[in-house]
Amino acid sequence: MSYLYLVVAVIGEILGTSLLKASNGFTQLFATLGALLSYGICFYFLSLSLKTINLSVAYALWSGIGIVATTAISYFIWKENLNFMTIIGLVLILLGIVLVNLFSNH
């Protein structure tokens, strides 16, 4: 169940970050409220997942998947540019997530 909580936390983080962009510096009321609500849900479910998942594993998954998904959203939705070095960095983040999960004591 803890990994389900972590999935909800990741989705909340991705949605919150996307709405943060849409809030245009907190000038758009509904996007701002959505971002705050999403982050609240995100941190609540992240805290639930930490009851049984090691902090290092949970945080690596939460932040790493969030970074990769948010980058994809920024490219496809917000039409922001990606360069080769950004892609290499994302691959290294994913590799780091795999290594943390493989060599941590769950």
The percent of residues in helical segments reads over 70%
Alpha-beta content class: mainly alpha
Extract low-pLDDT stretches: none
Q: Work out the helix count.
A: 4
Shape: flat
**Pattern of helices and strands:** HHHH
Distance between the termini: 14 Å
Radius of gyration: 15 Å
Number of strands: 0
Overall pLDDT, averaged?
94
Pfam families: Multi_Drug_Res
Main location: membrane
InterPro entries: EmrE-like (IPR037185), Small_drug/metabolite_transptr (IPR000390), Small_multidrug_res (IPR045324)
Protein name: Multidrug efflux SMR transporter
Question: How would you explain this protein's 3D organization?
Answer:
- With 106 residues, the protein is mainly α.
- It has one domain.
- The protein contains four helices and no strands.
- Helix 3 packs antiparallel against helix 4.
- The longest helix is centred in the middle third of the chain and has 22 residues, at 55-76.
- The radius of gyration is 15 Å and the shape is flat.
- The two termini are 14 Å apart.
- The mean pLDDT is 94.
